[in-house]
Amino acid sequence: MRKMIYLISVLPAFGSLVIFNRVEPYVLGLPFVLFWSILWLFLTSMFLLIVNVLDPANKGGEE
Fold first, then answer.
1. How does pLDDT run across 7-28, given as a tens digit for each residue?
2. Is the distance from CB of 53 to CB of 40 less than 8 angstroms?
3. Helix, strand or coil for residue 52?
4. Is the pLDDT of residue 43 over 70?
5. How far apart are CA 15 and CA 8, in angstroms?
6. Measured CA distances, 11 to 25, 33, 48, 63 (Å)
7. Residue 9: CB partners within 8 Å, gap ≥ 6?
8. Which residues of 16-54 are buried (b: 16+ CB within 10 A; e: fewer)?
9. Are 18 and 37 spatial neighbours (Cβ–Cβ below 8 Å)?
10. How far apart (Å, rounded) are the C-alpha atoms in residues 60 and 63?
C-alpha cells in the first residue's frame, strides 16, 4: 500500500509534465505547465498535512 501511495505522489510531478508541456493555454495568466507544477506543489503540501493529522502515530504526546 505504501508503494502505491509513493507512485501516486510521483506521477503528477514527473509523468504529466511530459504530456502537458505546452505554453498554450494560459491558466490564471501562467503557461499551463507552470500552473500545473505550482498546483501540485500546493496539493502535495495539503495531502501531507492531512496525512499528518490523520496518522495515529502522531497522537502521542511529546516526550
1. 676 766 666 666 666 667 888 8
2. no
3. helix
4. yes
5. 10
6. 22, 14, 16, 37
7. 44, 47
8. eeeeeeeeeeeeeeebebebbbeebeeeeeeeeeeeeee
9. no
10. 9
